[in-house]
Structures
1.
Amino acid sequence: MNLKAKLLNGFQNKYEVGFNEERIAERLSQLASIGLTEEGGSNRIAYTKEERAAKEMVKKWIKEILLEVYEDEAGNVFGRLNGKDTTLPAVLVGSHVDTVPNGGHFDGTLGVLTALEVVQTWTEEAFIPDRNLEIVIFSDEEGVRFDGGLTGSRVMMGEADAGSLREDKDEDGVTFAEALRADGLDIDLLDKAVRNPKEIHAFVELHIEQGKVLERQDCPVGIVTGIAGPVNLWVQFNGEAGHAGNTPMGQRLDALAASSEFMTELEKMPGRFSETAVATVGKIDVYPGGSNVIPGRVELIVDVRDIYLESRDSLLATIEELALKIAERRGLQVVLDRKLRVDPVLIQDGMKEIVKDAVESSGFQPVLLPSGAAHDAMIMGRHVPTAMIFVRSQDGISHNPKEWTTLDDIMAGCKVLSETLKQLVAG
Ligand SMILES: [Zn+2]
């Protein structure tokens, strides 16, 4: 069964919010056919022919509703619905169409296609906004190819430029400059993609939640309060390797036992700093790694996130103190290194209120929740008023062919997005 049939098959028109469910199911299905994997997932890596084909497909749909389509030097695609006063700063709405390898069919694409559905419905109803509304597809959100990500939005807001990106290489040794050229773009012109934030009134991104909060609350949509910024803390415990049989328990410098204590204590900490803080050890390497050898060295990475910069950094400092304290008591050495540091972004109260009003007037309970994952909205939120709407994910699964959001929930998302945008495009 193709994606369209599967979506429509489960459709109950639970919320009766209007919009064209068949059209959006058809478009999701057509996009899913680009880069379809054997496991039924999506493979549209940034600046490849698959991402390009997806952009061209959406461009065609945007043109069909007679919007002006253009593309910037970073490959970001825009479709503009002119407002009554075209000199006013525009509202931007959208997401991305690239995926992780063998990813899902909703991450990113849903934000683009709900924006298109809303604008198409407006044009059918002959609704003309006071100011311009631009649908946007950002290039290379996922960052799997060049270890970066959020590339289109970063370039557009002046956070990345040709100088910093040019020599980045993918796994095959292809540079960022070469990848752009293969996509019909020119790195020497990249910096022309920068936009003046004053031209942008607001940015809105609708995205799948990729978590289970909305499912637990039994709600199709949620209001994002902030986007957590991660810090990766690399921790190395150095003890002493020794024979597991010949070294008495009291004479050991066991790096893994120290790490275990560290991780157990670590798990209790985030809640003391804020409700939204999290800390995770997802990678650990034990050396020399033999069943009869006392571990002499352990390397692990702690991923620390929060939507509040201050509490995230206090948590991080406390985790570092914990590692030092455990190492000292056990007579081990510890090496700490803060890597990858992205500042979180809080959604402004005024923007949260607009989404909350949209949610309530659409007949849904307002559920507020943070985003643990990064999105283009995180970059945009540093420069212009930004809102983010989450739509329920089934079982919280994402970056996986099993990623699923029901068509009923998608229609609820369309309604809330439309109401949010109507507030923002009002002059
Ligand atoms: Zn995404």
Note: The chain has a mean pLDDT of 96.
2.
Amino acid sequence: MSGPPAATSQVPRSRRSLRTRLLVAFVVPLVVVLGLVGVASVTSLRSELLGQVDTRLDAVSDRSRDYSAQPGEVLPPRPPDDGNGDADSEPGGLGARGQGEGTLVATVVDGTCTNSGVIGAKGETVTLTSAQEDVLSGLTPDGEPVTEDLGGDLGEYRLVAGTAPNGDVLVNGLPLSGTADAVRRLVAVELVVGLLALAAAALAAVLVIRRTLRPLDRVAATATRVSELPLASGEVQLAERVPPEDTDPRTEVGQVGTALNRMLDHVEGSLAARQESETQVRQFVADASHELRTPLASIRGYAELVRRQRAGVPSDVGHAMRRVESEALRMSELVEELLLLARLDAGRELTTEEVDLTALVVDTVSDAHVAGPTHDWQVDLPDSPVVVPGDPARLHQVLANLLANVRSHTPDGTTATTRLRAEAGWAVLQVVDDGPGIPEGLRPHVFERFARGDASRSRTAGSTGLGLAIVHAVVAAHGGTVEVTSEPGRTAFTVRLPHASEV
Ligand SMILES: Nc1ncnc2c1ncn2[C@@H]1O[C@H](COP(=O)(O)OP(=O)(O)OP(=O)(O)O)[C@@H](O)[C@H]1O
Ligand SMILES: [Mg+2]
């Protein structure tokens, strides 16, 4: 068993658009670089400023040590802390010349702060709280500067503890508030400038990506238009091409455009070749059918002649001649049907006149009734005649073929109802029978040429499988449609013809 699928909340990378992926690929490294530059500049500024403070702190320490080491100078002992910070408790180092505002000096004796102070804004001495003194007394007197947070108004301090000439520990310090302010300002400036630069770069990237990929959209649009063309059959005009400005082979999109155009050239060539060969075959069938008409008529004529001369013709020869005549007749019909299909395929114009479908139904059903008296022929007609523009002979053939099918493919006693009605400008002609239905495997192919049910039985009955193909071709040539629904007990062929009117 494989593990559970990866989290589905995230869109898989491959499903994001190329635009999004390019934008991410551009913006993410930019953010990383800006972040690294920011961190590096803040770190280096901070260490530079600390270095400067340390240098100044060295000077402060020197001054304090020198001051407290002056001969005769004895630091007064620290009186009990009264919290007023009077001058008596002030460490001597604060008085040294050159000590500036914020300078901190303290003396630690035996781990206890004996006196301490910070130079205030006006040069006054501010005493430290005991918590702050505790921090100072905890420092190691190794002469190494350390950073400590003294809290209160003082904040972070850079402190150094060293041993004074008299053996006491002398602590000196300088405030780091200036350093912190400078670092904070730099961070703020970097954030604002960085975000603005990022927004500007992302905007520029979006514009550049959109502009760069626009030719790809045009190539895709060309491919889409081609995919919507009906290329399956008939004379195909494949005029779609990628515009020349998108076929520059020096660009990637141009290579796609060039390849697509080359492919379209090939497809157009193949389609033209297919169309030409189809036309040739159609022409051949039409010519062959046409050429067969005359000899077939002669064969029928001679056979009939022999049949009529009953005297002197042996009975078996007479029988053979009748067979020759009927097969020649069947062959003539087949040739006529092939010729008609070839002409319809070639888009040969049908004659167009007003055809009264109501009269056509009445006539054709009467013919069927005569030809198949063992079937029950019903008609269902509208009150007023339905008229369509079309070829009367061909439309007659459509209905005759449908009725002939009922006659030859359903048992005696089957009822066939021919219905006609006009619906929103369409004439709907329907032939419904209650016979056994079209075999299931044949249904999807029933309008194809030479598609027949039980082949052997049909062939003996003189069936060729062209009847419904002709129905389909004639109806299509009239701009109409034909559909079939079939199940045992109900088979319905529905023909729809456009531009119908009731008169
Ligand atoms: N009303 C129907 N009931 C049952 N089967 C049908 C019906 N109409 C058509 N079929 C089936 O569809 C097949 C194709 O019909 P189509 O009219 O194209 O050819 P055909 O009748 O066999 O030959 P042709 O009409 O050329 O003499 C038939 O062979 C038959 O099996
Ligand atoms: Mg038929």
Note: Residues 222 and 228 are 10 Å apart (CA to CA).
